[in-house]
Write a structure and sequence with these properties.
- InterPro entries: MobA-like_NTP_Trfase, Molybde_CF_guanTrfase, Nucleotide-diphossugar_trans.
- Keywords: Cytoplasm, GTP-binding, Magnesium, Metal-binding, Molybdenum cofactor biosynthesis, Nucleotide-binding, Transferase.
- It holds the Pfam family NTP_transf_3.
- This is Molybdopterin-guanine dinucleotide biosynthesis protein A.
- This protein is of the alpha/beta class.
- It contains six helices and nine strands, in the order E-E-E-H-E-E-H-E-H-E-E-H-H-E-H.
- It has a seven-stranded mixed sheet. Strands 2-3 form a two-stranded antiparallel sheet.
- Strand 7 and strand 8 form a beta hairpin.
- The longest helix is centred in the middle third of the chain and has 10 residues, at about 100-110.
Length: about 190
């Protein structure tokens, strides 16, 4: 499917397991993690970033959840308000191995939505694509706080792709692993 899509990158968390560092700004392979994620969505009509302004993302539309740091559901609400395309790529800001090929594979597989699964078969809710209208309707009805609670009922297609594009940097060990080249450079899909 060659779908028109926007991207919504959630980049406003507290990074507690990283000692409160600016996780999206941490560098892997010479560039900030958030710039790697943005580079994986070159065909997105709009690049919506929920978090503080980033000088390296000139095309970004920056919004904040209220209050800042309130969690993924308020962040998604703030970001989705800026999405105008029929599809949206919902992504974390700390995915060092995500490529445009991975996002294209998600778009090609999606019906209502598609998410990546890790090597253990667990859905990675912040690496997926969704029909904007269905996601908006679900979000309007949802009163919970978890992405799993919001997104799982939408019955997305699940994909396991090579290159561990779902790998995120939540801890110092994750960051060291990404910087060392493990799990290795992503394979083009």
């Amino acid at each position: 499917m060659s779908a028109r899509y926007d991207a919504c990158i959630l980049a406003g968390g507290h990074a507690r397991r990283l000692g409160g560092q600016d996780k999206p700004g941490l560098r892997v392979a010479g560039r900030p993690l958030i710039e790697t994620v943005a580079a994986a969505v070159p065909d997105a009509g709009r690049l919506v970033v929920v978090g503080p302004h980033r000088p390296g993302l000139a095309r970004g539309i920056f919004v904040r959840e209220d209050p800042p740091g309130a969690g993924p559901i308020p962040a998604l609400r703030a970001g989705l308000a800026e999405v105008s395309a029929p599809w949206v790529a919902l992504l974390a800001a700390d995915l060092p191995f995500l490529t445009a090929g991975h996002v294209s594979a998600l778009l090609a597989a999606a019906r209502t939505g598609a998410v990546l699964v890790d090597d253990g078969g667990r859905e990675q809710w912040l690496v997926g694509v969704w029909r904007t209208a269905e996601l908006g309707e679900a979000l309007a009805r949802y009163e919970g706080r978890s992405l799993h609670g919001l997104l799982a009922p939408l019955a997305p297609v699940t994909l396991h792709l090579t290159g561990e594009p779902w790998f995120d940097c939540d801890t110092p060990a994750d960051l060291r692993r990404a910087r060392s080249g493990e799990p290795g450079p992503p394979t083009q899909v």
